[in-house]
Amino acid sequence: MPQQQTRNPEPGGQLDWWAPTPVLPPEPAAVPEPLPAPEPVPASEPVPGPSSIEVYRAVQRSAAFQRIRHSYRTFVFPVSGVFLAWYLLYVAAQAAAPALMRRPVAGPVNVAWLLGLLQFATTFVLAWLYARNARTKRDRAALSLRWDTQDQLR
Fold first, then answer.
1. CB of 101 within 8 A of CB of 93?
2. CA gyration radius for the chain?
3. What per-residue confidence (pLDDT) applies to 15?
4. 3-state secondary structure at position 85
5. 53, 55, 118, 146 - which has most CB atoms within 10 Å?
């Protein structure tokens, strides 16, 4: 009987990809031994402290949190209103005065293109103003409040 070539030839031998490979039965998987049950740890007296719900509700009622919230709202609401009005003015001008919007400004750029590009510029300016406002007016106070809250929860 001729000897079959295997897929792993000896050094210097050739590999015959078309030779059938012997099918070996799978080896049984090793079964791990069960771990011993953990030793019961004697329960120490838990230190009663405020629950997280109580802490967060107290923070929400605090004057520091109300100042941060007021600072946020006095910036975001007016700026959002102004930007929404600016956007609606652009859309209304496009619908109500198409001749005005088609008027050339410089070369192929007309009033509609100019106002549309200004929408993008306004978005970036408002994002920058928001980040500056948050950094200068709210971030330090919010971080301080956060650390105080985390200390109360420990």
1. yes
2. 36
3. 63
4. helix
5. 55
